[in-house]
Amino acid sequence: MDRTVVEAHLNRVPIEVRESVMELSTDARWAVYIALALGEEMYFNELKDTFGANPSEMDRILKSLVDGGLIAKKVRRLEDVGDRRRVHYTSTDYGKKMLNALCDVVLPPESLVRQYKPTSSDSENSCTMHTGTVNGSGETDPENWRFDRTPAGRDAFNTKPTITSAKQAETRV
Asked: How many domains does one find in the chain?
C-alpha cells in the first residue's frame, strides 16, 4: 500500500480515537473493558480471579486498556501507589461514552426492537419486523428494518430497503 495515501487518511481521525479502538483487538480485552464500563471499579486480583487469568496476562490487558484511555488505574490514598493490591481499575468517562456510542451506532433504537414479532413462516430462531414503507425520498423507513437470528444463534441486524425506481427493483443490504 502507498504509505503516503494511508497516512493522509489516518490523519483525518485523531490518533487517540484510532488507538483506543485498537486496544480492543482481543476478546479478553473486550471482556475486561465491558466488565469495567458496565460495572463498578474492580481491584487487580478481583479482575484476575473473575477472568481466571494469570497475573502477567491480566497486567498486559489492563495496561493496554489504560494506555488507550478506556479505563483508569486509581488508588484511594497516596501511600497506596505502587501496591498492586490497593490499585483499582474503573472505566473512564471516555470509555463509557465510547461503549455507548458504539451501541448507539450499531444497535437499532429500542422503540424498534419492541416491534419485533415472531412470524409463523420463519424458523423458531428467527424474528422479522413488520414491513414498513419507503419514504418520499426513496429511503427506507426504520419499519423496513429486519432482525434475523442466524442458525449459529448469533444475531444479525440487516436492513432490507426497497428502492423505488422505474423497474421497482428491490435490493437487500
From this structure: 2
